[in-house]
Write a structure and sequence with these properties.
SH3 type barrels; five-stranded antiparallel β-sheet; elongated
Protein backbone atom coordinates (compact mmCIF):
# COMPACT_ATOMS: atom_id res chain seq x y z
CA UNK A 1 0.00 0.00 0.00
CA UNK A 2 2.81 2.31 0.82
CA UNK A 3 4.48 1.53 -2.50
CA UNK A 4 1.30 2.33 -4.46
CA UNK A 5 0.95 5.72 -2.78
CA UNK A 6 4.57 6.48 -3.58
CA UNK A 7 4.12 5.56 -7.26
CA UNK A 8 0.98 7.72 -7.56
CA UNK A 9 2.76 10.62 -5.91
CA UNK A 10 5.69 10.31 -8.30
CA UNK A 11 3.36 10.29 -11.30
CA UNK A 12 1.54 13.42 -10.15
CA UNK A 13 4.85 15.25 -9.63
CA UNK A 14 6.04 14.26 -13.10
CA UNK A 15 2.85 15.56 -14.74
CA UNK A 16 3.10 18.79 -12.76
CA UNK A 17 6.74 19.36 -13.87
CA UNK A 18 5.87 18.83 -17.53
CA UNK A 19 2.96 21.30 -17.23
CA UNK A 20 5.11 23.93 -15.55
CA UNK A 21 7.86 23.44 -18.17
CA UNK A 22 5.42 23.99 -21.06
CA UNK A 23 3.93 27.06 -19.44
CA UNK A 24 7.42 28.49 -18.86
CA UNK A 25 8.44 27.88 -22.47
CA UNK A 26 5.34 29.65 -23.77
CA UNK A 27 5.97 32.66 -21.56
CA UNK A 28 9.61 32.98 -22.65
CA UNK A 29 8.79 32.68 -26.36
CA UNK A 30 5.88 35.09 -26.35
CA UNK A 31 7.89 38.38 -26.29
CA UNK A 32 9.96 37.26 -29.34
CA UNK A 33 6.84 36.61 -31.41
CA UNK A 34 5.12 39.95 -30.83
CA UNK A 35 6.47 43.48 -30.89
CA UNK A 36 5.15 46.37 -28.85
CA UNK A 37 2.69 47.35 -31.60
CA UNK A 38 1.07 43.97 -31.63
CA UNK A 39 2.72 42.86 -34.92
CA UNK A 40 5.01 39.93 -35.43
CA UNK A 41 8.55 40.79 -34.27
CA UNK A 42 11.43 40.64 -36.77
CA UNK A 43 15.00 41.80 -37.22
CA UNK A 44 17.01 43.87 -39.67
CA UNK A 45 20.69 43.44 -39.04
CA UNK A 46 23.73 43.65 -41.17
CA UNK A 47 27.09 45.21 -41.83
CA UNK A 48 28.52 48.30 -43.60
CA UNK A 49 31.84 47.91 -45.43
CA UNK A 50 33.65 49.00 -48.58
CA UNK A 51 35.80 46.81 -50.80
CA UNK A 52 38.89 48.71 -51.94
CA UNK A 53 40.71 48.27 -55.24
CA UNK A 54 43.20 46.05 -53.49
CA UNK A 55 40.27 43.77 -52.45
CA UNK A 56 40.51 44.86 -48.83
CA UNK A 57 37.29 45.07 -46.77
CA UNK A 58 37.11 48.37 -44.88
CA UNK A 59 34.44 48.25 -42.16
CA UNK A 60 32.77 51.56 -41.32
CA UNK A 61 32.36 51.78 -37.56
CA UNK A 62 30.55 54.42 -35.50
CA UNK A 63 28.21 55.09 -38.42
CA UNK A 64 24.60 56.18 -37.75
CA UNK A 65 22.30 53.85 -39.73
CA UNK A 66 18.63 54.90 -39.99
CA UNK A 67 15.50 52.83 -40.53
CA UNK A 68 12.06 54.16 -41.54
CA UNK A 69 8.89 52.54 -42.87
CA UNK A 70 8.73 52.46 -46.66
CA UNK A 71 5.34 54.20 -46.49
CA UNK A 72 6.96 57.19 -44.76
CA UNK A 73 9.49 57.39 -47.57
CA UNK A 74 6.80 57.11 -50.28
CA UNK A 75 4.84 59.96 -48.68
CA UNK A 76 7.76 62.27 -49.56
CA UNK A 77 6.97 61.80 -53.31
CA UNK A 78 10.65 62.06 -54.12
CA UNK A 79 10.25 60.55 -57.60
CA UNK A 80 7.70 63.18 -58.66
CA UNK A 81 9.75 66.02 -57.19
CA UNK A 82 12.88 64.73 -58.91
CA UNK A 83 11.10 64.43 -62.27
CA UNK A 84 9.88 68.03 -61.99
CA UNK A 85 13.37 69.23 -61.08
CA UNK A 86 14.93 67.30 -63.97
CA UNK A 87 12.42 68.78 -66.42
CA UNK A 88 13.22 72.26 -65.10
CA UNK A 89 16.96 71.68 -65.46
CA UNK A 90 16.59 70.24 -68.97
CA UNK A 91 14.60 73.30 -70.05
CA UNK A 92 17.20 75.61 -68.54
CA UNK A 93 19.93 73.59 -70.25
CA UNK A 94 18.26 73.99 -73.66
CA UNK A 95 18.01 77.77 -73.19
CA UNK A 96 21.60 78.01 -72.00
CA UNK A 97 22.71 76.00 -75.02
CA UNK A 98 20.94 78.44 -77.37
CA UNK A 99 22.62 81.39 -75.64
CA UNK A 100 25.97 79.61 -75.80
CA UNK A 101 25.62 78.91 -79.53
CA UNK A 102 24.73 82.55 -80.16
CA UNK A 103 27.77 83.69 -78.17
CA UNK A 104 30.01 81.42 -80.22
CA UNK A 105 28.58 82.82 -83.47
CA UNK A 106 29.26 86.33 -82.19
CA UNK A 107 32.82 85.35 -81.24
CA UNK A 108 33.32 83.97 -84.77
CA UNK A 109 32.00 87.18 -86.32
CA UNK A 110 34.27 89.36 -84.17
CA UNK A 111 37.34 87.22 -84.88
CA UNK A 112 36.55 87.16 -88.61
CA UNK A 113 36.15 90.93 -88.81
CA UNK A 114 39.28 91.40 -86.72
CA UNK A 115 41.24 89.15 -89.08
CA UNK A 116 40.15 91.09 -92.17
CA UNK A 117 40.90 94.45 -90.56
CA UNK A 118 44.25 93.19 -89.23
CA UNK A 119 45.33 92.06 -92.72
CA UNK A 120 44.45 95.48 -94.15
CA UNK A 121 46.23 97.27 -91.34
CA UNK A 122 49.40 95.19 -91.70
CA UNK A 123 49.50 95.89 -95.45
CA UNK A 124 49.50 99.61 -94.66
CA UNK A 125 52.30 99.03 -92.14
CA UNK A 126 54.34 97.34 -94.87
CA UNK A 127 53.85 100.43 -97.05
CA UNK A 128 55.40 102.74 -94.46
CA UNK A 129 58.89 101.80 -95.61
CA UNK A 130 57.98 102.78 -99.17
CA UNK A 131 56.61 106.23 -98.23
CA UNK A 132 59.12 107.20 -95.54
CA UNK A 133 60.96 109.54 -97.92
CA UNK A 134 58.30 112.26 -97.63
CA UNK A 135 56.72 113.24 -94.32
CA UNK A 136 53.31 114.10 -95.80
CA UNK A 137 52.95 110.73 -97.50
CA UNK A 138 54.15 108.92 -94.38
CA UNK A 139 51.48 110.71 -92.32
CA UNK A 140 48.76 109.80 -94.81
CA UNK A 141 49.59 106.08 -94.54
CA UNK A 142 49.93 106.32 -90.77
CA UNK A 143 46.47 107.88 -90.56
CA UNK A 144 45.05 104.82 -92.36
CA UNK A 145 46.81 102.56 -89.86
CA UNK A 146 45.50 104.60 -86.91
CA UNK A 147 41.91 104.33 -88.14
CA UNK A 148 42.21 100.55 -88.36
CA UNK A 149 43.89 100.36 -84.96
CA UNK A 150 40.82 102.02 -83.47
CA UNK A 151 38.57 99.34 -84.99
CA UNK A 152 40.88 96.55 -83.87
CA UNK A 153 40.85 97.92 -80.32
CA UNK A 154 37.05 98.01 -80.40
CA UNK A 155 36.94 94.37 -81.50
CA UNK A 156 39.22 93.47 -78.59
CA UNK A 157 36.97 95.31 -76.13
CA UNK A 158 33.86 93.61 -77.53
CA UNK A 159 35.48 90.20 -77.21
CA UNK A 160 36.71 91.07 -73.72
CA UNK A 161 33.14 91.67 -72.52
CA UNK A 162 32.20 88.08 -73.41
CA UNK A 163 32.72 85.24 -70.95
CA UNK A 164 35.64 82.97 -71.66
CA UNK A 165 33.32 79.95 -71.86
CA UNK A 166 30.03 80.34 -73.75
CA UNK A 167 28.77 77.06 -72.32
CA UNK A 168 29.73 77.54 -68.69
CA UNK A 169 26.08 77.69 -67.58
CA UNK A 170 25.35 74.56 -69.62
CA UNK A 171 28.12 72.72 -67.81
CA UNK A 172 26.79 73.84 -64.43
CA UNK A 173 23.30 72.62 -65.31
CA UNK A 174 24.72 69.36 -66.67
CA UNK A 175 26.56 68.88 -63.38
CA UNK A 176 23.30 69.48 -61.50
CA UNK A 177 21.57 66.89 -63.67
CA UNK A 178 24.34 64.40 -63.08
CA UNK A 179 24.13 64.98 -59.31
CA UNK A 180 20.39 64.40 -58.96
CA UNK A 181 21.11 61.13 -57.15
CA UNK A 182 22.98 63.05 -54.46
CA UNK A 183 20.18 65.61 -54.32
CA UNK A 184 17.57 62.86 -53.89
CA UNK A 185 19.54 61.27 -51.09
CA UNK A 186 20.08 64.59 -49.29
CA UNK A 187 16.36 65.36 -49.43
CA UNK A 188 15.48 61.94 -48.03
CA UNK A 189 18.20 62.07 -45.40
CA UNK A 190 17.20 65.51 -44.10
CA UNK A 191 13.46 64.78 -43.98
CA UNK A 192 13.47 61.19 -42.73
CA UNK A 193 16.27 61.33 -40.17
CA UNK A 194 14.15 62.93 -37.40
CA UNK A 195 11.42 60.29 -37.91
CA UNK A 196 13.65 57.22 -38.15
CA UNK A 197 15.05 54.63 -35.78
CA UNK A 198 18.83 54.74 -35.50
CA UNK A 199 21.50 52.15 -34.82
CA UNK A 200 25.19 52.98 -34.59
CA UNK A 201 27.60 50.48 -36.13
CA UNK A 202 30.21 48.78 -34.00
CA UNK A 203 33.89 48.46 -34.81
CA UNK A 204 33.09 45.78 -37.43
CA UNK A 205 30.44 47.97 -39.08
CA UNK A 206 27.54 45.87 -37.72
CA UNK A 207 24.09 47.24 -36.91
CA UNK A 208 20.77 45.77 -35.65
CA UNK A 209 17.08 46.79 -35.54
CA UNK A 210 13.99 45.10 -34.12
CA UNK A 211 10.85 45.84 -36.12
CA UNK A 212 7.57 44.48 -37.38
CA UNK A 213 7.58 41.69 -39.95
CA UNK A 214 4.43 43.15 -41.49
CA UNK A 215 6.12 46.19 -43.12
CA UNK A 216 8.79 47.06 -45.66
CA UNK A 217 11.44 49.57 -44.65
CA UNK A 218 13.98 52.04 -45.95
CA UNK A 219 17.51 51.67 -44.63
CA UNK A 220 19.79 54.65 -45.21
CA UNK A 221 23.10 56.09 -44.07
CA UNK A 222 26.08 58.08 -45.23
CA UNK A 223 29.78 57.90 -44.36
CA UNK A 224 33.25 58.65 -45.55
CA UNK A 225 36.77 57.28 -45.45
CA UNK A 226 40.09 59.14 -45.28
CA UNK A 227 42.43 57.97 -48.05
CA UNK A 228 46.22 57.69 -47.64
CA UNK A 229 46.72 60.68 -49.93
CA UNK A 230 44.68 62.84 -47.54
CA UNK A 231 41.46 63.08 -49.61
CA UNK A 232 38.11 61.61 -48.61
CA UNK A 233 35.76 59.14 -50.25
CA UNK A 234 32.06 59.66 -49.52
CA UNK A 235 29.47 56.87 -49.43
CA UNK A 236 25.65 56.98 -49.40
CA UNK A 237 23.09 54.19 -49.22
CA UNK A 238 19.27 54.26 -49.58
CA UNK A 239 17.95 50.71 -49.90
CA UNK A 240 14.64 48.85 -49.57
CA UNK A 241 14.75 46.09 -46.92
CA UNK A 242 12.44 43.46 -45.39
CA UNK A 243 12.79 42.24 -41.82
CA UNK A 244 13.41 38.58 -41.04
CA UNK A 245 12.73 36.32 -38.10
CA UNK A 246 16.26 35.02 -38.44
CA UNK A 247 18.84 37.33 -36.92
CA UNK A 248 21.49 35.59 -38.98
CA UNK A 249 19.96 37.02 -42.15
CA UNK A 250 22.25 39.96 -42.97
CA UNK A 251 21.68 43.15 -44.97
CA UNK A 252 25.00 44.20 -46.42
CA UNK A 253 25.66 47.83 -47.37
CA UNK A 254 28.61 47.64 -49.79
CA UNK A 255 29.90 49.09 -53.06
CA UNK A 256 27.18 47.29 -55.02
CA UNK A 257 24.16 49.05 -53.51
CA UNK A 258 25.53 52.58 -53.13
CA UNK A 259 23.20 55.22 -54.58
CA UNK A 260 25.31 55.20 -57.77
CA UNK A 261 24.99 51.40 -58.09
CA UNK A 262 22.61 49.27 -60.10
CA UNK A 263 21.56 46.89 -57.32
CA UNK A 264 17.78 46.28 -57.40
CA UNK A 265 17.34 47.29 -53.74
CA UNK A 266 18.83 50.75 -54.45
CA UNK A 267 15.82 53.11 -54.24
CA UNK A 268 17.69 56.00 -55.87
CA UNK A 269 18.19 53.81 -58.93
CA UNK A 270 14.42 53.32 -59.19
CA UNK A 271 13.76 57.04 -58.76
CA UNK A 272 16.41 58.01 -61.31
CA UNK A 273 15.00 55.65 -63.92
CA UNK A 274 17.81 53.12 -63.83
CA UNK A 275 20.87 55.41 -63.96
CA UNK A 276 22.28 58.92 -64.12
CA UNK A 277 20.74 61.67 -66.17
CA UNK A 278 22.52 61.96 -69.52
CA UNK A 279 22.84 65.31 -71.29
CA UNK A 280 24.13 66.26 -74.70
CA UNK A 281 27.88 66.81 -74.91
CA UNK A 282 28.72 70.51 -74.85
CA UNK A 283 30.98 71.81 -77.65
CA UNK A 284 34.22 73.49 -76.72
CA UNK A 285 34.17 77.29 -76.67
CA UNK A 286 36.48 79.12 -79.04
CA UNK A 287 39.59 80.80 -77.75
CA UNK A 288 39.13 84.47 -76.93
CA UNK A 289 42.71 85.34 -77.91
CA UNK A 290 43.40 87.54 -80.94
CA UNK A 291 46.63 87.87 -82.95
CA UNK A 292 48.71 90.92 -82.27
CA UNK A 293 49.20 93.56 -85.02
CA UNK A 294 52.60 94.16 -86.52
CA UNK A 295 54.51 96.75 -84.48
CA UNK A 296 54.92 100.16 -86.09
CA UNK A 297 58.48 101.10 -87.04
CA UNK A 298 60.08 103.89 -85.08
CA UNK A 299 59.13 107.39 -86.29
CA UNK A 300 61.87 108.85 -88.54
CA UNK A 301 63.57 112.17 -87.76
CA UNK A 302 61.91 114.67 -90.04
CA UNK A 303 63.61 117.84 -91.26
CA UNK A 304 62.01 121.21 -90.51
CA UNK A 305 59.39 122.40 -93.05
CA UNK A 306 60.92 123.45 -96.39
CA UNK A 307 64.18 121.54 -95.84
CA UNK A 308 64.99 118.61 -98.16
CA UNK A 309 67.96 116.37 -98.98
CA UNK A 310 69.16 115.11 -102.35
CA UNK A 311 68.80 111.38 -102.99
CA UNK A 312 71.42 111.20 -105.76
CA UNK A 313 74.35 113.04 -107.33
CA UNK A 314 73.37 116.37 -108.86
CA UNK A 315 75.48 119.07 -110.55
CA UNK A 316 74.92 122.80 -110.08
CA UNK A 317 76.49 125.84 -111.69
CA UNK A 318 78.25 128.19 -109.29
CA UNK A 319 80.39 131.32 -109.72
CA UNK A 320 83.47 129.12 -109.74
CA UNK A 321 82.07 126.61 -112.26
CA UNK A 322 80.04 123.38 -112.15
CA UNK A 323 79.95 121.67 -108.78
CA UNK A 324 78.81 118.13 -108.00
CA UNK A 325 76.48 117.66 -105.01
CA UNK A 326 76.63 114.20 -103.38
CA UNK A 327 73.57 112.32 -101.98
CA UNK A 328 72.37 113.66 -98.63
CA UNK A 329 73.18 117.28 -99.47
CA UNK A 330 70.74 119.64 -97.73
CA UNK A 331 68.74 122.08 -99.92
CA UNK A 332 65.95 124.55 -99.19
CA UNK A 333 62.65 124.68 -101.03
CA UNK A 334 61.94 127.86 -102.99
CA UNK A 335 58.71 126.85 -104.66
CA UNK A 336 57.04 123.86 -106.22
CA UNK A 337 54.32 122.96 -108.68
CA UNK A 338 53.01 119.46 -108.19
CA UNK A 339 56.05 117.19 -107.93
CA UNK A 340 58.42 119.73 -109.56
CA UNK A 341 60.53 121.60 -107.00
CA UNK A 342 62.92 124.53 -107.18
CA UNK A 343 65.47 124.23 -104.40
CA UNK A 344 68.41 126.36 -103.33
CA UNK A 345 71.94 125.29 -102.47
CA UNK A 346 74.02 128.18 -101.20
CA UNK A 347 73.55 130.84 -103.93
CA UNK A 348 72.54 128.40 -106.67
CA UNK A 349 69.00 127.26 -107.53
CA UNK A 350 68.26 123.97 -109.27
CA UNK A 351 65.08 122.29 -110.46
CA UNK A 352 64.50 118.70 -109.35
CA UNK A 353 61.65 116.22 -109.15
CA UNK A 354 60.16 115.28 -105.79
CA UNK A 355 61.33 111.72 -106.49
CA UNK A 356 64.90 113.03 -106.08
CA UNK A 357 64.20 114.59 -102.66
CA UNK A 358 63.51 113.48 -99.10
CA UNK A 359 62.86 115.31 -95.86
CA UNK A 360 63.73 112.20 -93.81
CA UNK A 361 66.87 113.21 -91.93
CA UNK A 362 67.70 109.59 -91.06
CA UNK A 363 67.82 108.57 -94.74
CA UNK A 364 69.89 111.65 -95.59
CA UNK A 365 72.39 110.71 -92.89
CA UNK A 366 72.64 107.16 -94.22
CA UNK A 367 73.19 108.49 -97.77
CA UNK A 368 76.00 110.73 -96.53
CA UNK A 369 77.54 107.87 -94.59
CA UNK A 370 77.35 105.61 -97.64
CA UNK A 371 78.91 108.28 -99.87
CA UNK A 372 81.64 108.94 -97.34
CA UNK A 373 82.31 105.26 -96.99
CA UNK A 374 82.36 104.89 -100.76
CA UNK A 375 84.85 107.74 -101.14
CA UNK A 376 86.97 106.25 -98.37
CA UNK A 377 86.88 102.88 -100.05
CA UNK A 378 87.91 104.42 -103.38
CA UNK A 379 90.84 106.23 -101.74
CA UNK A 380 91.88 103.05 -100.02
CA UNK A 381 91.65 101.16 -103.30
CA UNK A 382 93.71 103.77 -105.10
CA UNK A 383 96.33 103.69 -102.37
CA UNK A 384 96.46 99.93 -102.53
CA UNK A 385 96.77 100.04 -106.32
CA UNK A 386 99.65 102.54 -106.04
CA UNK A 387 101.42 100.30 -103.56
CA UNK A 388 101.00 97.35 -105.86
CA UNK A 389 102.38 99.32 -108.82
CA UNK A 390 105.37 100.51 -106.72
CA UNK A 391 106.13 96.99 -105.61
CA UNK A 392 105.90 95.79 -109.23
CA UNK A 393 108.25 98.58 -110.37
CA UNK A 394 110.76 97.72 -107.65
CA UNK A 395 110.67 94.11 -108.68
CA UNK A 396 111.19 95.01 -112.32
CA UNK A 397 114.14 97.25 -111.39
CA UNK A 398 115.76 94.51 -109.33
CA UNK A 399 115.29 92.07 -112.16
CA UNK A 400 116.82 94.52 -114.67
CA UNK A 401 119.83 95.16 -112.41
CA UNK A 402 120.37 91.47 -111.96
CA UNK A 403 120.20 90.92 -115.71
CA UNK A 404 122.74 93.68 -116.31
CA UNK A 405 125.22 92.23 -113.82
CA UNK A 406 124.88 88.81 -115.42
CA UNK A 407 125.65 90.24 -118.89
CA UNK A 408 128.72 92.05 -117.61
CA UNK A 409 130.01 88.89 -115.97
CA UNK A 410 129.58 87.01 -119.23
CA UNK A 411 131.59 89.63 -121.19
CA UNK A 412 134.40 89.45 -118.68
CA UNK A 413 134.62 85.70 -119.10
CA UNK A 414 134.54 86.05 -122.87
CA UNK A 415 137.42 88.63 -122.78
CA UNK A 416 139.53 86.23 -120.80
CA UNK A 417 138.93 83.38 -123.23
CA UNK A 418 139.53 85.35 -126.47
CA UNK A 419 142.35 87.57 -125.27
CA UNK A 420 140.62 90.55 -126.69
CA UNK A 421 141.40 93.69 -124.85
CA UNK A 422 137.92 95.01 -125.18
CA UNK A 423 134.59 93.75 -126.40
CA UNK A 424 131.63 95.77 -127.23
CA UNK A 425 129.33 95.63 -124.21
CA UNK A 426 125.69 96.48 -124.40
CA UNK A 427 124.93 99.94 -123.21
CA UNK A 428 123.15 100.37 -119.91
CA UNK A 429 119.48 101.05 -120.34
Amino acid sequence: MHNKNLTLQSFVLSVLCIFLLEVGCKRTSSPRQRDSSGGTAGFISGQVFIVTRSAENVRLGQLAVYLAPLKTFEDLHIAERRAAKVAELEQAFAKARIRGDESERLVSDIKGSYSVMLAQRDRWVDQLSAVQLIHARYNAVKAEITSRDALLDQFKRDLGTMAGDSYDLCKQIAADLESTSDAVFSAVYNQLTPRSAVSRTDADGRFRFECSLDEEYVLFTRGNRLLPAGSKEHYEWLVRVRPSRDEKHQVLLTNDNLIEGLAPENLVRDIAGGGHQVVEIIPTSQSRSLPEPKPLPSEPRWAPPGIFFLLGYTSVKTDSGVRGLPPGTQVKEQQHSGDNYSVQFENAVLDVSLTQLTNNADIAQRLRDVDTNAQTQIAQWQKAQGEIERQNKDAEDRQSDEEQRRIQENYKRLHTLTGESRLNEPAHP
